[in-house]
Design a protein that fits this description.
The protein has eleven helices and two strands, in the order E-E-H-H-H-H-H-H-H-H-H-H-H. The chain is an all-alpha fold and 276 residues long. The longest helix has 29 residues. The N and C termini lie far apart (41 Å). Bound molecules: zinc ion.
Length: 276
Protein backbone atom coordinates (compact mmCIF):
# COMPACT_ATOMS: atom_id res chain seq x y z
CA UNK A 1 0.00 0.00 0.00
CA UNK A 2 2.84 2.37 0.87
CA UNK A 3 4.59 3.91 -2.11
CA UNK A 4 8.25 4.77 -1.63
CA UNK A 5 9.26 5.87 -5.11
CA UNK A 6 7.80 7.34 -8.26
CA UNK A 7 5.55 10.35 -8.57
CA UNK A 8 2.19 11.50 -7.26
CA UNK A 9 -0.16 14.47 -7.39
CA UNK A 10 0.33 16.95 -4.55
CA UNK A 11 -2.91 16.91 -2.49
CA UNK A 12 -2.47 20.63 -1.77
CA UNK A 13 -1.79 22.16 -5.21
CA UNK A 14 -2.45 19.31 -7.66
CA UNK A 15 0.98 19.39 -9.32
CA UNK A 16 3.05 16.32 -10.12
CA UNK A 17 5.76 15.75 -7.48
CA UNK A 18 8.05 12.95 -6.28
CA UNK A 19 6.71 10.65 -3.56
CA UNK A 20 9.97 11.03 -1.65
CA UNK A 21 9.60 14.83 -1.48
CA UNK A 22 9.60 16.09 2.12
CA UNK A 23 8.11 19.38 1.03
CA UNK A 24 6.17 20.16 -2.16
CA UNK A 25 8.48 22.27 -4.37
CA UNK A 26 5.49 24.15 -5.81
CA UNK A 27 3.26 25.03 -2.86
CA UNK A 28 5.45 24.18 0.13
CA UNK A 29 3.03 21.63 1.69
CA UNK A 30 4.84 19.46 4.25
CA UNK A 31 4.98 15.67 3.80
CA UNK A 32 2.64 15.75 0.78
CA UNK A 33 2.93 11.98 0.34
CA UNK A 34 2.11 11.33 4.01
CA UNK A 35 5.11 8.99 4.31
CA UNK A 36 4.09 7.24 1.08
CA UNK A 37 0.45 6.54 2.01
CA UNK A 38 -1.18 9.48 0.20
CA UNK A 39 -0.93 7.89 -3.30
CA UNK A 40 -2.75 4.78 -2.04
CA UNK A 41 -5.48 6.95 -0.49
CA UNK A 42 -5.80 8.90 -3.73
CA UNK A 43 -6.18 5.68 -5.71
CA UNK A 44 -8.71 4.28 -3.24
CA UNK A 45 -10.94 7.37 -3.33
CA UNK A 46 -10.22 8.12 -6.97
CA UNK A 47 -11.11 4.83 -8.60
CA UNK A 48 -12.10 2.08 -6.22
CA UNK A 49 -14.61 3.64 -3.86
CA UNK A 50 -17.91 4.64 -5.43
CA UNK A 51 -19.48 6.46 -2.49
CA UNK A 52 -23.13 6.15 -3.51
CA UNK A 53 -22.88 2.46 -4.41
CA UNK A 54 -21.25 1.73 -1.03
CA UNK A 55 -23.97 3.59 0.90
CA UNK A 56 -26.92 2.17 -1.05
CA UNK A 57 -25.51 -1.38 -0.90
CA UNK A 58 -25.02 -1.08 2.88
CA UNK A 59 -28.65 0.07 3.29
CA UNK A 60 -30.06 -2.78 1.18
CA UNK A 61 -27.85 -5.51 2.72
CA UNK A 62 -28.68 -4.39 6.28
CA UNK A 63 -32.39 -4.15 5.49
CA UNK A 64 -32.41 -7.74 4.24
CA UNK A 65 -30.25 -8.82 7.20
CA UNK A 66 -32.73 -7.23 9.63
CA UNK A 67 -35.63 -9.14 8.02
CA UNK A 68 -33.71 -12.41 8.04
CA UNK A 69 -32.65 -11.99 11.69
CA UNK A 70 -36.26 -11.78 12.85
CA UNK A 71 -38.47 -13.34 10.17
CA UNK A 72 -41.54 -13.46 12.43
CA UNK A 73 -41.86 -9.66 12.17
CA UNK A 74 -42.14 -9.73 8.38
CA UNK A 75 -45.76 -10.75 8.21
CA UNK A 76 -47.15 -8.53 10.96
CA UNK A 77 -49.39 -6.04 9.17
CA UNK A 78 -48.80 -2.55 10.58
CA UNK A 79 -50.22 -0.36 7.84
CA UNK A 80 -48.74 0.94 4.61
CA UNK A 81 -45.46 2.11 6.11
CA UNK A 82 -45.17 -1.17 7.98
CA UNK A 83 -44.86 -3.36 4.87
CA UNK A 84 -41.91 -5.70 5.34
CA UNK A 85 -40.87 -4.09 8.62
CA UNK A 86 -37.92 -5.58 10.46
CA UNK A 87 -38.51 -6.42 14.14
CA UNK A 88 -37.29 -4.28 17.04
CA UNK A 89 -34.85 -6.90 18.32
CA UNK A 90 -33.19 -7.32 14.92
CA UNK A 91 -32.89 -3.55 14.52
CA UNK A 92 -31.21 -3.19 17.94
CA UNK A 93 -28.86 -6.05 17.01
CA UNK A 94 -27.85 -4.19 13.85
CA UNK A 95 -27.31 -0.82 15.51
CA UNK A 96 -30.58 1.10 16.01
CA UNK A 97 -30.01 4.23 18.10
CA UNK A 98 -32.13 5.84 20.87
CA UNK A 99 -34.08 3.77 23.41
CA UNK A 100 -32.05 1.05 25.11
CA UNK A 101 -29.02 1.68 22.88
CA UNK A 102 -28.78 5.27 24.07
CA UNK A 103 -29.40 4.35 27.72
CA UNK A 104 -26.45 1.97 27.36
CA UNK A 105 -24.30 4.79 25.92
CA UNK A 106 -23.72 2.96 22.65
CA UNK A 107 -22.39 6.07 20.89
CA UNK A 108 -21.59 4.21 17.68
CA UNK A 109 -25.31 3.71 17.03
CA UNK A 110 -25.32 7.40 15.92
CA UNK A 111 -23.51 6.07 12.82
CA UNK A 112 -24.90 2.56 12.39
CA UNK A 113 -28.57 3.62 12.60
CA UNK A 114 -28.12 5.69 9.41
CA UNK A 115 -28.05 2.49 7.31
CA UNK A 116 -31.13 0.82 8.89
CA UNK A 117 -34.68 1.16 7.65
CA UNK A 118 -38.07 0.30 9.11
CA UNK A 119 -39.99 -0.81 6.05
CA UNK A 120 -40.09 -1.22 2.29
CA UNK A 121 -41.36 2.32 1.62
CA UNK A 122 -38.90 3.82 4.13
CA UNK A 123 -35.87 2.29 2.39
CA UNK A 124 -37.32 2.90 -1.09
CA UNK A 125 -37.75 6.64 -0.57
CA UNK A 126 -34.44 7.09 1.25
CA UNK A 127 -32.46 5.18 -1.40
CA UNK A 128 -34.23 7.23 -4.06
CA UNK A 129 -33.13 10.49 -2.40
CA UNK A 130 -29.57 9.21 -1.86
CA UNK A 131 -29.31 8.29 -5.54
CA UNK A 132 -30.85 11.63 -6.45
CA UNK A 133 -28.64 13.93 -4.32
CA UNK A 134 -25.60 11.76 -3.61
CA UNK A 135 -23.86 11.84 -7.02
CA UNK A 136 -23.86 15.67 -7.02
CA UNK A 137 -22.33 15.81 -3.53
CA UNK A 138 -19.80 13.15 -4.58
CA UNK A 139 -18.85 15.16 -7.65
CA UNK A 140 -18.88 18.66 -6.12
CA UNK A 141 -17.10 17.80 -2.85
CA UNK A 142 -15.33 14.51 -3.63
CA UNK A 143 -16.09 11.05 -2.18
CA UNK A 144 -14.16 11.45 1.12
CA UNK A 145 -15.64 14.85 1.95
CA UNK A 146 -19.03 13.57 0.76
CA UNK A 147 -18.86 10.60 3.12
CA UNK A 148 -17.82 12.84 6.03
CA UNK A 149 -20.81 15.13 5.32
CA UNK A 150 -23.19 12.14 5.05
CA UNK A 151 -21.91 10.54 8.29
CA UNK A 152 -21.65 13.68 10.42
CA UNK A 153 -25.10 14.91 9.30
CA UNK A 154 -26.71 11.58 10.20
CA UNK A 155 -24.90 11.41 13.54
CA UNK A 156 -25.82 14.99 14.52
CA UNK A 157 -29.44 14.27 13.58
CA UNK A 158 -29.59 11.20 15.81
CA UNK A 159 -27.71 12.96 18.62
CA UNK A 160 -30.32 15.72 18.61
CA UNK A 161 -33.22 13.24 18.52
CA UNK A 162 -31.68 11.12 21.29
CA UNK A 163 -31.23 14.19 23.49
CA UNK A 164 -34.68 15.66 22.73
CA UNK A 165 -36.92 12.60 22.47
CA UNK A 166 -34.85 9.50 23.23
CA UNK A 167 -37.11 7.32 21.10
CA UNK A 168 -35.53 4.39 19.17
CA UNK A 169 -34.63 5.64 15.73
CA UNK A 170 -33.22 4.54 12.37
CA UNK A 171 -32.93 5.76 8.79
CA UNK A 172 -30.80 7.76 6.40
CA UNK A 173 -33.14 10.76 6.29
CA UNK A 174 -30.98 12.90 8.61
CA UNK A 175 -28.02 12.25 6.31
CA UNK A 176 -30.20 13.05 3.28
CA UNK A 177 -31.06 16.43 4.82
CA UNK A 178 -27.30 16.84 5.29
CA UNK A 179 -26.73 16.19 1.56
CA UNK A 180 -29.39 18.80 0.74
CA UNK A 181 -27.70 21.31 3.07
CA UNK A 182 -24.28 20.59 1.50
CA UNK A 183 -25.66 21.29 -1.99
CA UNK A 184 -27.28 24.53 -0.77
CA UNK A 185 -23.95 25.60 0.79
CA UNK A 186 -22.23 24.89 -2.54
CA UNK A 187 -24.89 26.78 -4.52
CA UNK A 188 -24.61 29.82 -2.23
CA UNK A 189 -20.83 29.91 -2.69
CA UNK A 190 -21.28 29.81 -6.46
CA UNK A 191 -23.97 32.49 -6.28
CA UNK A 192 -26.37 30.17 -8.10
CA UNK A 193 -29.75 31.31 -6.82
CA UNK A 194 -31.89 29.11 -9.12
CA UNK A 195 -30.04 26.00 -7.93
CA UNK A 196 -30.33 26.90 -4.24
CA UNK A 197 -33.98 27.99 -4.52
CA UNK A 198 -34.90 24.56 -5.90
CA UNK A 199 -33.00 22.79 -3.08
CA UNK A 200 -34.52 25.01 -0.37
CA UNK A 201 -37.93 24.13 -1.79
CA UNK A 202 -37.21 20.39 -1.53
CA UNK A 203 -35.81 20.77 2.00
CA UNK A 204 -38.83 22.75 3.20
CA UNK A 205 -41.38 20.43 1.57
CA UNK A 206 -39.62 17.32 2.94
CA UNK A 207 -39.31 18.83 6.41
CA UNK A 208 -42.97 19.93 6.45
CA UNK A 209 -44.13 16.48 5.23
CA UNK A 210 -42.47 14.97 8.30
CA UNK A 211 -45.06 16.66 10.52
CA UNK A 212 -47.96 15.12 8.61
CA UNK A 213 -46.69 11.56 8.72
CA UNK A 214 -46.46 9.36 11.78
CA UNK A 215 -43.21 7.85 12.94
CA UNK A 216 -41.03 10.52 11.32
CA UNK A 217 -38.08 11.74 13.34
CA UNK A 218 -38.26 15.51 12.83
CA UNK A 219 -35.38 16.13 15.25
CA UNK A 220 -33.13 13.92 13.11
CA UNK A 221 -34.18 15.86 10.00
CA UNK A 222 -33.40 19.25 11.60
CA UNK A 223 -30.15 18.00 13.15
CA UNK A 224 -29.07 16.34 9.90
CA UNK A 225 -29.64 19.56 7.98
CA UNK A 226 -27.67 21.60 10.55
CA UNK A 227 -24.89 19.00 10.74
CA UNK A 228 -24.60 18.82 6.95
CA UNK A 229 -24.57 22.61 6.67
CA UNK A 230 -21.77 23.12 9.21
CA UNK A 231 -19.67 20.22 7.84
CA UNK A 232 -20.06 21.43 4.25
CA UNK A 233 -19.07 24.97 5.31
CA UNK A 234 -15.84 23.52 6.70
CA UNK A 235 -15.12 21.67 3.41
CA UNK A 236 -13.75 22.98 0.15
CA UNK A 237 -15.29 21.95 -3.15
CA UNK A 238 -13.48 19.54 -5.50
CA UNK A 239 -12.55 22.22 -8.03
CA UNK A 240 -11.14 24.50 -5.29
CA UNK A 241 -8.85 21.98 -3.65
CA UNK A 242 -8.08 18.28 -3.88
CA UNK A 243 -9.16 16.12 -0.98
CA UNK A 244 -6.35 16.15 1.55
CA UNK A 245 -5.02 12.90 3.05
CA UNK A 246 -6.39 14.22 6.37
CA UNK A 247 -9.99 14.24 5.08
CA UNK A 248 -9.48 10.85 3.42
CA UNK A 249 -8.22 9.39 6.71
CA UNK A 250 -11.18 10.96 8.55
CA UNK A 251 -13.56 9.34 6.03
CA UNK A 252 -11.89 5.95 6.46
CA UNK A 253 -12.00 6.36 10.27
CA UNK A 254 -15.77 7.07 10.10
CA UNK A 255 -16.20 4.06 7.79
CA UNK A 256 -14.25 1.87 10.22
CA UNK A 257 -16.16 3.20 13.27
CA UNK A 258 -19.45 2.42 11.48
CA UNK A 259 -18.33 -1.10 10.52
CA UNK A 260 -17.03 -1.83 14.04
CA UNK A 261 -20.27 -0.36 15.42
CA UNK A 262 -22.36 -2.99 13.62
CA UNK A 263 -20.24 -5.73 15.20
CA UNK A 264 -20.39 -4.09 18.67
CA UNK A 265 -24.18 -3.69 18.58
CA UNK A 266 -24.64 -7.25 17.40
CA UNK A 267 -22.42 -8.62 20.18
CA UNK A 268 -23.86 -6.42 22.97
CA UNK A 269 -27.52 -6.98 22.10
CA UNK A 270 -27.07 -10.70 21.47
CA UNK A 271 -25.30 -11.16 24.80
CA UNK A 272 -28.03 -9.14 26.59
CA UNK A 273 -30.64 -11.43 24.99
CA UNK A 274 -28.74 -14.50 26.04
CA UNK A 275 -28.67 -13.07 29.58
CA UNK A 276 -24.93 -12.68 30.02
ZN1 LIG B 1 1.96 21.25 -3.73
Amino acid sequence: MRQTQGSMICPQCGKLIGVGEEKCPFCGAWQPSLYGYAPALQRLFGRHLDLITVIVTACVVLYVAALVLQPSAIFQWQGLFGILSPGTRALYQLGMTGGVAWQQHWWWTLLTAIYLHGGLLHIFFNVMWIRNLGPSVDELYGPARGFVIFSVAGAVGFLLSNLMSGAPSIGASGSIFGLLAALIVFGRRQGSSVFTAQLWQWAIVMFAMGFFMSGVNNWAHAGGFAGGWVTAQAMRASHEKRESPGVQILALALLAATAVGFVLSFMRVTSLLLGH
